[in-house]
């Protein structure tokens, strides 16, 4: 058990049978009445974000999340197969559970699997990945006065806004949290 007074960003807790990670919190001490903690929590099972208010000093369950290194192997229809790097066990996750992550996953890529008491909640990607550009229109010389961008499609199918000097075949560093171009790799 953990007190809501000890909330930290990134802490995982169990509230009403669901697993949440703390995105944001604020201790509020009104002039009249009891103090409370206003929090923004992300449900790790379905990805929904909720705002919850707790009385100051209230205790809730702490969820011990396990992170293991795994390797993405391949896609098999609607299932995506991963291999545990320690035990070499293979397991698959449904496409619905990996909607955002599939935009960055390449075969043989290393990621971390997030699980709680044996239940797989999802995967954690590295903060940035290297992806090759497979389709983009050529940049027009003289169009760079205002930092113009163009659309580029990378090898995983993700469309990214990139500077005009990027060409097909270039390898880019892409931020996996926002899906944005960082730089050339």
TrEMBL record:
Residues 67-121 form the Translation elongation factor P/YeiP central domain. Coiled coil: none annotated. It is found in: Cytoplasm. Pathway: Protein biosynthesis; polypeptide chain elongation. Residues 129-184 form the Elongation factor P C-terminal domain. Keywords: Cytoplasm, Elongation factor, Protein biosynthesis. GO terms for molecular function: translation elongation factor activity. SUPFAM superfamilies: Nucleic acid-binding proteins (SSF50249), Translation proteins SH3-like domain (SSF50104). Its main location: cytoplasm. Gene3D superfamilies: 2.30.30.30, Nucleic acid-binding proteins (2.40.50.140). Involved in peptide bond synthesis. Stimulates efficient translation and peptide-bond synthesis on native or reconstituted 70S ribosomes in vitro. Probably functions indirectly by altering the affinity of the ribosome for aminoacyl-tRNA, thus increasing their reactivity as acceptors for peptidyl transferase. Belongs to the elongation factor P family. This is Elongation factor P. It comes from Paenibacillus aceti.
């Amino acid at each position: 058990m953990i007190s809501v007074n000890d909330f930290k960003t990134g802490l995982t807790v169990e509230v009403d049978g669901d697993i949440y990670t703390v995105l944001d919190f604020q201790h509020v001490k009104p002039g009249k009445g009891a103090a409370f903690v206003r929090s923004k929590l992300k449900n790790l099972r379905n990805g929904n974000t909720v705002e919850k208010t707790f009385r100051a000093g209230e205790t809730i369950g702490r969820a011990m999340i396990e992170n293991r290194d795994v390797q993405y192997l391949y896609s098999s229809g609607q299932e995506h197969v991963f291999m545990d790097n320690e035990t070499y066990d293979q397991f698959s996750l449904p496409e619905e559970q990996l909607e955002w992550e599939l935009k960055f996953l390449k075969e043989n890529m290393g990621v971390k699997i997030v699980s709680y008491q044996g239940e797989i909640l999802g995967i954690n990607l590295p903060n940035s990945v290297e992806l090759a550009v497979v389709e983009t229109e050529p940049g027009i010389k003289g169009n760079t006065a205002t930092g113009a961008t163009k659309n580029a499609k990378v090898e995983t199918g993700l469309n990214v806004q990139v500077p005009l000097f990027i060409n097909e075949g270039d390898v880019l560093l892409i931020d996996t949290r926002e899906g944005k171009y960082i730089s050339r790799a």
